[in-house]
Amino acid sequence: PEDWNANPVKVLVASNFDEVVSDASKDVFVEFYAPWCGHCKRIAPVWDELGEQFTDNEKVIIAKMDMTANQLDTLKVKGFPTFKLYRAGAREEEDYTGPRTIQGFVEFINQVVE
After folding, report:
1. How many CB atoms lie within 10 A of CB 106?
2. Which residues are catalytic?
3. Which helix (H) or strand (E) holds 43?
C-alpha cells in the first residue's frame, strides 16, 4: 500500500516484503498475524507501543503482515501471531520466542541492535 510506512508500525504486503526485510541498513521485526486471531488482537496495542518506542531509531523497523491477505512461498508461519526478526545485511530470519510484553520485545531488539 502507498501508506505502508505512514505509521510507527509499518504494513508489509507480499509486494513490499522482500524489499523491506532485505534492507541492509535496518533490522526489521515483524509480527505475522491473522485478523480473526484472539492472541493477535490482544497483542496489537503492545505492538503499536513497540512501534512508537522505535519510531526515532533509524536502524529498526517494527512491522506487521496480515497472513490471511498475503502469501509468500519463502515464508512458513505455523501459528498466529508469529514474530520474526530480519537482521540488517543478513538474509536469515530469527524467530522470537520470548515474552510477548513490551519489555520482552524491547530487550530482544536492544540485544540485537548495536
Report:
1. 14
2. 37, 40
3. helix 38-53
Give, in order, the Cα–Cα distances in Å from 2 to each of 8, 32, 44, 48, 77: 15, 20, 22, 20, 25
Q: Residue 70's Cα: distance from chain center in Å?
A: 14
| pLDDT averaged per 10 residues, the chain (length 114) | 89 95 94 96 97 95 96 87 92 90 96 80
Task: Specify burial of residue 46 (Cβ count, 10 A radius: 0-12, 13-18, 19+).
Answer: middle
Q: Tell me: the pLDDT tens digits for 57-79?
A: 999 999 999 999 998 888 888 89
- Cα separation, 9 vs 48, whole angstroms: 6
Measured CA to CA, the distance from residue 22 to residue 104 in angstroms comes to: 24
Measured CA to CA in angstroms, residue 37 lies from 43, 50, 60 at distances of 10, 20, 26
> Distance (Å, rounded) from C-alpha 90 to C-alpha 43?
27
How far is Cα 60 from Cα 45, in angstroms, rounded to an integer? 19
